[in-house]
């Protein structure tokens, strides 16, 4: 979420606490993912369905077109062959002499498809353009409709299939023999995908050029069959099982990939939209669930010698892709929505997990302060949270301070009075944060048992430049002295400010001059480095 959007969400002047949605259980990731999948799947499924439909339709069209083209070309070949047979019908009643043989050879040579022309009479072949006089049984019954016969081979070429066209005339017949290589070329040119068969009677020839009486394989994806109107044969075309898948991979893969990418894109958008919080409260709750709120510690030092005596724990929001979000953009909203309670609890747990293992190395009675608001004062669980935090450290090793803020007015009640009494009973200290600028600071002093005041940094910044700020600081020091409570000056950044505050006798200081807020895991290394630096300074002075 861009910082400007965060600012708009959290600082909009028209957005009040009463307009926030009520708390509801958090959304689970699985339903969100399931809904996104349901949104993403229709597009690729639709693309797949359209692709399958188009593939089946195209395969069917190809089969029908292949059948039509094959019949057209085969009819041309057979019509030409019949013309060659008709041209020698006058020789049927004559003998197979040399002149007739030459005429048969010439007719066969001048026809582009005919391999040989043969003459038959009385049920026997007696003259061939290839072999001259012969005597073979014609087997008239094997011709379909007495006109066409598909053969796996003959006496001249037993391994080369052929198609014989028979033309009857003058008490005999003339036969034109077509080489299967022409037929195979026709079949292969007419088909792009699938299978194509020429069927004559019970025999069929496929794209491999072999003649067989085996049944034609099942063509389940596409099927087309048509008989010639001119000659007694049938052409069958189609696609076997798996052809649609192959067609999709070969021709429709880019389209399928595009629809899959589109579905993925839509699913991602849906996932992001479902995951997009509908309110600032939801944003904060999800950030809390994602452990995005981190504790940063800023040292508090003894004004006399500069030694670290503790730290104030500050909350920071580390938003992935955006870095650290300013506290003023989310803390007020967290307080109005009540989420500041679990956020503070999580902050305490994180600090305890980091510092408790190093309790022996912390300063004696180490001061650890957490900011609390009006919502905490109405929450009895604050007492348990403080007990759990103190229990994580050895007894007496730390002092837990709760710093009252004035972003939301704390209304004292019997419950809040009892809560602060119980906190005091377990050793928890109370400080008023940013003292001197809020309208309720004096009221808090009267109502609550306060152990310390934290002077707002605006007074410290005007030291030396504003006489009024100096008088106010003098007044605050006198007030703290009379009430017997500690003072902590915030926002110390210069040596001049340090000298002035030391002269006033303010015991504890905090500011960039001593250290900036740092991640909790960096506090102990920084503490060791500070101790070494202070020790070196003391040794040098001695």
Task: Explain this structure.
The chain has 17 helices and 21 strands. Helix 2 (29-40) crosses helix 6 (243-275), helix 3 (42-86) packs antiparallel against helix 5 (180-190) and helix 9 runs parallel beside helix 11 (381-391). It folds into 2 domains: 55-239, Beta-Lactamase (2-Layer Sandwich); 292-541, EAL domain (TIM Barrel). The protein is α+β, with helices and mostly antiparallel strands and 542 residues long. The chain has an 8-stranded mixed β-barrel with strand order 12-13-15-16-17-18-19-20, surrounded by 5 helices. A 6-stranded antiparallel sheet has the order 3-2-1-6-5-4. It is 45% helix and 22% strand.
Can you lay out the helices and strands and say which pair or pack?
Blueprint: H1 3-11, H2 29-40, H3 42-86, H4 98-109, E1 114-121, E2 124-128, E3 132-137, E4 148-151, E5 162-169, E6 172-179, H5 180-190, E7 195-200, E8 203-205, E9 211-212, E10 222-227, E11 234-239, H6 243-275, H7 280-289, E12 293-302, E13 308-319, E14 323-325, H8 331-337, H9 340-355, E15 366-372, H10 374-377, H11 381-391, E16 398-404, H12 414-425, E17 429-435, H13 441-447, E18 452-455, H14 457-461, H15 467-483, E19 486-489, H16 495-504, E20 508-510, E21 518-519, H17 520-541
